[in-house]
Amino acid sequence: MKNLFRDEGGSVLLELKERIASAVKQIEQLKQIGKTINEEKARRARLTAEFQKKAGAFLGERKAGSTAELDHALRAFEEARPDQLKVVLRQLAQVVRSFGARVRSSIKEESELFEKTKGELEALQTQIKNLDFNRVIVSPLLDELNKRLPESSSSRTPGFESGDCGANPRSGAILTSPVGVIETRPAYTRESGEHNLHGRPLSFTINKKGGKTMNNDVFQRVQVELAKLEAEHHVRVLYACESGSRAWGFASRDSDYDVRFLYVHDRDWYLSIEDRRDVIEAQIHDSLDISGWELRKTLRLLRKSNPPLLEWLKSPVVYRHDPVFAIEFGAIASQFYSPRRCFAHYLHMAFGNWRDYLCGRKQVSLKKYLYVFRPLLACRWIERGIGPVPMLFDELVAQVLDEPEVREAIAELVARKRAGDELDSAPRVEALDRFIKTELPRLESLIPAEEVLPRIEPLNRFFQEHCLAA
To answer: Within a 10 A sphere around the Cβ of 293, how many other Cβ atoms?
Structure first.
């Protein structure tokens, strides 16, 4: 213990003090996120109560069959002298028309508000029910604690839910969720064998079927760069996540970081007849690429069921998110998911990558096989009706790649890529070639007929709400 305090003038103690202070700060941030969500729930409850009160008052008035103004006009008609009837009748007709217009308008407003409130509440309930509480907000302190937690026994524990292969608990990985709940989950190592697609031991558990180690220096750098972009372009980042190989689960040590985000301008930006740039792109350095889509562009692409956009919502690494936006956008995204459009997108991508990088060559870049197989397996996933395509490649392999020989070859490529092996030039892999040549024409024959774009009104309402709140 004395050595602990003597070490470099107590530097260890100071470091621990700083880390504890950082942890307290992060806990406060999580509390604030929870407070924001609770405030939004309370606001919606107030709106619902006000609506019910107004609806009750109106129904009571309508049940009574009159209003004070209409009663007055009727009494005037009853008491009018013969020479006044013409004028009184004209006044009565005007009152009746006015009253009828107000009734129709009120009924319309009630109906629209009721449907909107009902839809919002149902979407909120669905999203909260399906909310992934295992998303990670990376913290240097939590990362350090995960490293220092003791190793547990290496014996196989069959009781863990870990996808399609067994798992050994490495340690209790400490997580924070976007809804402000601090949780503990076991971090897993994957055993060698046919299903060994998860690579080295994980510092963080992202979900039950996959995971990812996040470099905290990079995480902090991304936060700084996003803040710079917000200040430079006068925007607010609503959601930011990792895309590409690091989100797909087969990154090597030197793979690039591909950050994608959604943003909104202030209201005045939209009050212009000019066509303005709706993307922000920033190449920070060779290994960090950041780009974002403006909200209106995002919703136009969502209407077409844009697969990359839908994938971002399932990214295992989330750098920034507005809690209310994330819930509501996730709900509306599920309404606009189109299996047909996603299937066509992935098939086109598989054909393009096969043609550009593999077809007709004796020597090929082996990693390009992964960029053909991912969209191919995504098509199989959609064909089998499992739902929206997941981000993690190993989840696709586990669910839809049934051929043992092909599965083994893919597992070997993924393991080599994660280990940092050079995969730029090598002879072709016969088992993978056979699969691709058979599967591409089979999937092409399955493309269904073109479908009509869905109604745009829900997207317009969503845009107006979040644009006005900017």
So the answer is: 21
